[in-house]
């Protein structure tokens, strides 16, 4: 039997680090990715499509996303099994509960693992998060109650694995050894955005990168169990989006125009989304205008520039007799007691840039 497994698509993710229009474009990429996953399941003639949670962001769900999900899964023309995660948890107001899904879609709704009988003597057990956090482990004090080959579908991270768990509370974490002890042949788990292929479980990771620091492999997993009961796994790309996290040293840039030229060279030929972090000491007479720097892009779908370890010019002096907001700010910074010189320059740089209408990110 063949399955397509994915998780952590995070439809309608807000992407707060991107400008509004760029964030909207990335959210459309997430929708296109789901269509690609459905197309992959059809091309591979899979017997079922499995989602191990965080299909969407419950708190940010757009009004038309529910109908998009209903139509997309209906068009798959194969069984679809959904195990809600912590971000798309099953509750009274959840789309999982409110939507009239097509007959080929099965949503697991219990906090306890529940069985669905598949072909070939297989049983798929699935469970749901019912809250954003504090969900106990699904394998705790659990064991299958029937013969045959058992598979688990759920949202939860292995306790010894590296996962991108940035929230407080428990998210149905588990130990790999629990899978065997509970009577399962293999488990399909979501939650970690980093793909993991272990003996007893598979975590597909997110199908697309969801932040600039993400350098993992992304895609969906083709899973097949042959007539001998052996599991075969293959990752397959389902999106062509590229994300770049770049740096640019501006120490040797003699003026703002030169900074723009070096920035243009840094992103030349790139496609996708890029973030460039500036660092280095500005030369005398040089200031940054981040919004203007972001206009140098012509080929990227998304592009932002931010200040990292940028040290302002050292020639800023305490003004004498000048009665302006700029002069008052400089004088107050120079009177802060016990302030290290590097820190004083950083405060001056941030404040003076803000007074000139520039954004420091």
Account of the 3D structure:
- With 361 residues, this protein is of the alpha/beta class.
- It is 24% helix and 22% strand.
- It has helices at residues 20-43, 65-74, 95-98, 176-181, 256-267, 290-293, 325-334, 341-355, and strands spanning 2-6, 48-51, 80-82, 105-107, 114-117, 122-126, 149-155, 186-190, 196-197, 201-203, 220-225, 231-236, 243-249, 273-281, 302-311.
- The strands form 3 sheets. It has a 6-stranded mixed β-sheet, covered by helices on one side.
- α7 runs antiparallel to α8.
- The longest helix is centred in the N-terminal third of the chain and has 24 residues, at 20-43.
- The protein is elongated.
- The two termini are 50 Å apart.
Task: Write a concise keyword list for the protein shown above.
361 residues, alpha/beta, six-stranded mixed sheet, 8 helices, 15 strands, elongated, disordered C terminus
- How many β-strands, per DSSP? 15
Order of the strands making up the biggest sheet: 4-3-2-1-11-12
The DSSP helix count reads 8
Q: Any idea what the shape is?
A: elongated
Rg, alpha carbons: 26 Å
The main β sheet shows up as: 6 strands, mixed
How would you state the average pLDDT, rounded?
Answer: 88
- Helices and strands, in order, run as EHEHEHEEEEHEEEEEEHEHEHH
The percentage helix is: 10-25%
- The rounded distance between the terminal residues' Cα atoms is 50 Å
Which segments are poorly predicted (pLDDT under 50) over 5 or more consecutive residues?
Answer: 161-168, 357-361
**What fraction of the residues are assigned to beta strands by DSSP?**
15-25%
Q: What structural class should be given to the helix and strand makeup?
A: alpha/beta
